[in-house]
């Protein structure tokens, strides 16, 4: 039975408690990462659905123009080059539609896998990409440090390393143990087949004398690790500040980009209608209409991309601020 072990037992108990707290914070960190990943996967699927729907509409627009051009070509009113160009554009649009459908299906499969379901389980995405887009309140990076598990893990790492320093020193401190020894037998040659119990109570004192150099080196190693733990804490604090400020900056930038993207879509819609009408009236060439179609799909693609970027930025900001409301 140890009576005094130089502080090693007490240090081991405190270290075990600290490791338990670290494990709890690691669970919190894993949960936060899973929630963040699920959020990104969901809005990624919503974005791919929007891209797929937009490409379907684009194929419909090109097909309608192709039908008009085909009739006019058969009537001999336009050259064959117009018909070839619109056919080429339609084939290209159909290829892009296949790609968008594939991306959408892969996004749904990824979402199912994250939920632990069969990858091919149908999912009805109820949200549109421009829904549930509430801009969060601005939060000072210093206010979230107590809520970020990475910071808490780093702080506990410092405390744990301090206990390791004490444990390294305890190995070279005096120690005192007491015990009871039991024996069975006889004190001399056994001539009568009789024995007896022997009891011995002892106290053991250990005082290291020639290990002072090893004690210093062991403690110095742990002190260096303590400095590394402190650097890790500062690294985590800086990382939190960067994540919060980067995400907030992206949110504000995307607000402006969304306004521009909406205006661009409105212009692209009007430009496509006017160019298509003018082509039907014979005032523009097929190249003008094809250019308007390309501008239309580009405008809608950019708008979807910006909306998705905003959802990603908000999700990153929520994670960076530990989902503080």
Quick recap:
It is built from five helices and three strands; from the N terminus they run βαααββαα.
Description of the structure:
With 325 residues, the chain is mainly α. It has helices at 8-74, 80-114, 149-170, 212-280, 286-320, and strands at 2-4, 175-185, 196-206. Strands 1-2-3 form a three-stranded antiparallel beta sheet, with no helix packed on it. Helix 3 packs antiparallel against helix 4.
Q: How many distinct beta strands?
A: 3
How would you write the strand order of the largest sheet? 1-2-3
Biggest sheet: strands, sense, closure?
3 strands, antiparallel
Q: Which residues form runs of ≥5 with pLDDT under 50?
A: none
Helix content: over 70%
Mean pLDDT: 88
- Work out the radius of gyration: 36 Å
- Measured between the Cα atoms of the first and last residue, the distance is 53 Å
Order of helices and strands: EHHHEEHH
What is the percentage of strand-forming residues? Answer: 5-15%
Shape: elongated
Per DSSP, the total helix count is 5
> Structural class of the secondary structure composition?
mainly alpha
């Amino acid at each position: 039975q140890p009576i005094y072990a130089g502080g090693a037992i007490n240090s081991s108990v405190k270290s075990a408690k600290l490791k338990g707290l670290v494990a709890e914070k690691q669970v919190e960190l894993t949960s936060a990462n899973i929630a963040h990943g699920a959020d990104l996967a969901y809005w990624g699927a919503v974005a791919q659905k929007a891209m797929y729907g937009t490409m379907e509409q684009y194929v419909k627009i090109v097909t309608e123009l192709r039908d008009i051009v085909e009739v006019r070509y058969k009537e001999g009113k336009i050259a064959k080059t117009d018909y070839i160009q619109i056919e080429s554009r339609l084939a290209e649009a159909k290829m892009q539609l296949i790609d968008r459908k594939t991306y959408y299906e892969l996004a749904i499969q990824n979402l199912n896998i994250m939920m632990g379901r069969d990858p091919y389980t149908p999912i009805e995405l109820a949200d549109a990409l421009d829904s549930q887009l509430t801009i969060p309140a601005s939060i000072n990076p210093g206010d979230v440090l107590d809520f970020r598990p990475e910071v808490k893990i780093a702080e506990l790492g410092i405390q744990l390393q301090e206990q390791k320093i004490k444990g390294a020193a305890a190995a070279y401190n005096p120690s005192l143990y007491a015990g009871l020894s039991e024996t069975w037998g006889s004190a001399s040659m056994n001539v009568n087949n009789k024995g007896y119990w022997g009891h011995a109570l002892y106290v053991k004192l250990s005082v290291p004398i020639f290990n002072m150099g090893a004690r210093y080196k062991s403690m110095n190693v742990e002190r260096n690790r303590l400095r590394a733990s402190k650097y890790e804490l500062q690294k985590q604090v800086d990382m939190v500040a960067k994540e919060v400020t980067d995400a907030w900056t992206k949110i504000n930038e995307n607000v402006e980009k969304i306004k521009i993207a909406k205006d661009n879509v409105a212009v692209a819609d009007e430009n496509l209608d006017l160019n298509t009408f003018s082509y039907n009236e014979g005032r523009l060439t097929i190249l003008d209409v094809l250019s308007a179609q390309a501008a239309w799909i580009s405008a809608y693609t950019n708008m979807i991309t910006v909306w998705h970027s905003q959802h990603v930025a908000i999700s990153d900001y929520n994670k960076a601020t530990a989902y503080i409301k």
